[in-house]
Design brief:
Helix content is about 30%, strand content about 30%. It has about 700 residues and is α+β, with helices and mostly antiparallel strands. It has 5 domains: about 210 residues, 3-Layer(aba) Sandwich (Rossmann fold); about 80 residues, Beta Barrel (Elongation Factor Tu (Ef-tu), domain 3), CATH 2.40.30; about 55 residues, Elongation Factor G (Translational Gtpase), domain 3 (Alpha-Beta Plaits), CATH 3.30.70; about 140 residues, Ribosomal Protein S5, domain 2 (2-Layer Sandwich); about 80 residues, Alpha-Beta Plaits (2-Layer Sandwich). The structure holds guanosine-5'-triphosphate (GTP) and magnesium ion.
Length: about 700
């Protein structure tokens, strides 16, 4: 393989809705670059990109696969990202290392929710994009419909570089108004007369657009009414890099039509890596995998300098060292050994010690550390356990391994819920984890609905007193605590009715705790006349905190409570710490139960984007989940629904949403706050807890 310099490298990610044909297009790009000698297909399960066992079984991409194509002296690195929201992590890794994206649009569908959601994500990352309208050979391909939906979604950013000779079975070539040629089969022809008018019209629009981004070009365009191909490239390139232009290309990945010309445009106009070619070597690992016969493989981008075989690099964070005894250029499962990789280029190495994704490795002594990749928050959570308890440890280790390869799999043991919580991007994503646990680790597991992290609080003022007295044999125990509780909200009020008498409390000392599970506990010592020694206050507070950990209603954490200890009694000999812990705990429990206690539940902000035809179904489903509908909007032909929904009602939401909308909607969810549960839910939770307590007796 030729050694590629930085300026000869292009890094692009293929993005787009599921089944738009990204993997098939990638296969054609590799075929055009002679990386493969014949094209595989999804149906035959022999594409270079979807070569993982799971991808073959599911006939779809699950992992983002790095590939490359060699084209006219350039190396075009391509990351084929999965279209499904369940496997969105791969696209985020690619955003970090690619300078531009190819947005694949299925000509049979036009812009889909999946397309639009990728555009939003890519725009948020300021990723320049080229559009490839694909599957123009399909019976239902409809160029006009694609044009309309693109205009609706992207507005003036769209500029057609090409149009197809026809749609459906008759599609055999593309008319390119940048080169003013007709690309048909392997031939480059003059534009046939029948397309001349259409070509002129598109060309006019293209040149006008290209002139927009450069004053000198604009001037020339006004004076001469046209621009050269080179000038158009340069103007267009500026618009693409600034994210103001999405040039549109026409392809059919399956029949390899228009693909060569797309590669040529990427080479000529897509941005080259903006990296330092000289200076110390550094690389950034964006993906980590375990592969058959190879073991652990780390995929990286050279961020500066040149990586050469035999080089030693160091993780500036941990100080760990690695020798790169072999480095490879990667096209899926095909790995070609190379000697040098220059800044900007992609490669991989096997069995590194510092192998995890998001790791920086740099020349020893360097202090460069690249930011970790940020992934979107998971939106599907479930509890997981091994079918047989002896496997618990093994399950923990296996999950850790899977999570290190797929950073969108999040595993945590919740002390509060006493469950291992597995989170991911959707049910399919979680099922893949389950499949791997079964097939790769030999583990049988159970997935089930996780418990909800409820909280408890109070709504009223109440007071209580408790005397702890124990006289058995030797030394006795004695402590008596009188306290008052009220919600920790609003201004601090110290005047209360206590035993039918208006009483002004005087605060002697206080202790405000921000609770680790959210909310706070305010503790005020207002004891007068030395009824309780100051030295016993920490014991009383300790007793109260113990009860806050296991709330008096259902054993959930309690929060947002003010406690005033205003009186009590001591015994000169028998009063000791333990007595006040117990008295404090029980007085608090009693007061809490009389203070209008409430169970709180976590509420999430949910935002759904769906084609408007499903809006009604999505809304009524959200309402059935006790969702409070908020703002409703429309964006580029899709409905956007916002709702506040209790977490308790969100288990498997992604699955339901998908079946309600034929898989065409996407959503995000994010923790908002805690709110009281409705009365009927509270009664049920209290009854459940009582039953459970009985079981445990
Ligand atoms: N007619 C036609 N079918 C195509 C074309 N490209 C892909 N397909 C078919 O569309 C289906 C999906 O193709 P893929 O290449 O897997 O699509 P993808 O975008 O990679 O899908 P995900 O990996 O799930 O996101 C397969 O059945 C392909 O054979 C095309 O150009 N024309
Ligand atoms: Mg794919």
């Amino acid at each position: 393989m030729k050694e590629y310099q930085t300026k000869e490298v292009r890094n692009v990610v293929l993005l787009g809705a599921t089944k738009s044909g990204k993997t098939t297009l990638a296969e054609a790009m590799l075929f055009e670059g002679k990386v493969i000698s014949r094209m595989g297909s999804i149906e035959d399960k022999n594409t270079l990109s979807d070569s993982n066992e799971l991808e073959k079984i599911n006939q779809r991409s699950i992992y983002a696969t790095p590939l490359y194509s060699e084209f006219a002296g350039s190396k075009i690195n391509i990351i084929d990202a999965p279209g499904s929201d369940d496997f969105i992590g791969g696209a985020y890794s690619a955003f970090r290392v690619c300078e531009s994206g190819v947005l694949v649009i299925n000509a049979q569908q036009g812009v889909e929710v999946g397309t639009e959601s990728f555009v939003r994500r890519a725009e948020a990352q300021k990723l320049p994009m080229i559009i490839a309208v694909n599957q123009l050979d399909a019976d239902k391909a409809d160029w006009d419909n694609v044009q309309n939906s693109m205009k609706e979604t992207f507005g003036g950013k769209i500029v057609n570089v090409q149009f197809p000779n026809a749609c459906g079975a008759a599609f055999e070539g593309v008319i390119d108004v940048l080169t003013m040629k007709y690309y048909k089969g392997g031939e480059v022809l003059d534009i046939p007369a029948e397309f001349a008018d259409q070509a002129e019209e598109y060309r006019e629009q293209l040149i006008e657009k290209a002139a927009e981004f450069d004053d000198a070009l604009m001037e020339k365009y006004f004076e001469e009414g046209s621009l050269s191909e080179e000038e158009t490239h340069s103007g267009l390139g500026k618009g693409i890099v600034s994210g103001d232009v999405y040039p549109v290309f026409c392809v059919c990945g399956k029949k390899d039509i228009g693909v060569k010309r797309l590669l040529e445009f990427i080479k000529d106009v897509a941005p080259a890596p903006a990296v330092k070619e000289d200076g110390p070597t550094s690389i950034f690992i964006y993906k980590n995998d375990v592969e058959q016969h190879l073991g652990e493989v780390s995929y990286f981008k050279v961020m500066s300098g040149t990586l050469t075989t035999g080089m030693d690099l160091e993780d500036p964070v941990s100080g760990g060292k690695d020798r790169f005894s072999a480095i490879y250029a990667v096209a899926g499962s095909k790995k070609e050994p190379v000697t040098n990789l220059h800044a900007g280029d992609f490669g991989c190495a096997v069995k590194l010690k510092n192998s995890k994704s998001s790791t920086t490795l740099a020349a020893p002594g360097s202090d460069i550390v690249y930011d970790r990749i940020q992934y979107p928050a998971p939106k599907y959570r479930c509890a997981i356990k091994a079918k047989v308890q002896q496997d618990d440890q093994k399950l923990g280790d296996a999950l850790k391994k899977i999570a290190s390869q797929d950073p969108t799999v999040v595993v945590e043991y919740s002390k509060e819920l006493r469950q291992t919580i597995l989170s991911g991007n959707g049910e399919q994503h979680i099922n893949i984890v389950k499949w791997r646990l079964n097939n790769e680790f030999g583990l049988e597991v159970e997935l089930f609905a996780p418990k909800v992290p409820y909280r408890e609080t109070i709504t009223k003022v109440a007071s209580a007193q408790y005397r702890h007295k124990k006289q058995s044999g030797g030394a006795g125990q004695f402590g008596e605590v009188h306290l008052l509780v009220c919600p920790a909200e609003g201004e601090l009020n110290t005047k209360f009715m206590i035993n039918g008498k208006e009483t002004q409390l005087n605060i002697k000392s206080q202790d405000i705790t921000e609770l680790e599970w959210g909310g706070k506990l305010e503790f005020y010592n207002c004891v007068v006349g030395g009824a309780i020694d100051l030295g016993f206050m920490p014991a009383i507070l300790k007793g109260i905190k113990e009860r806050m950990v296991e709330g008096p209603l259902t054993g959930s954490y309690a929060r947002d409570i003010r406690v005033f200890v205003y009186d009590g009694k001591m015994h000169p000999v028998d009063s000791k710490e333990i007595a006040f812990i117990i008295a404090g705990r029980n007085a608090f429990r009693e007061a809490f139960r009389n203070a209008g206690p409430k169970i709180l539940e976590p509420i999430y902000n949910v935002e759904v984007m769906t084609p408007s035809e499903y809006q009604g179904a999505v809304m009524s489903d959200l309402q059935n989940r006790r969702g409070m509908l908020g703002d409703m909007g429309a964006d580029k032909g899709f409905a956007i629904l916002k709702a506040r929904v209790p977490l308790a009602e969100l288990y498997r939401y992604s699955t339901t949403l998908s079946s309600l909308t034929a898989g065409s909607a996407t959503f995000t969810m994010e923790f908002a706050d805690y709110q009281p549960v409705p009365g009927d839910v509270q009664s049920k939770l209290l009854a459940d807890y009582a039953a459970q307590e009985k079981d445990e007796d």
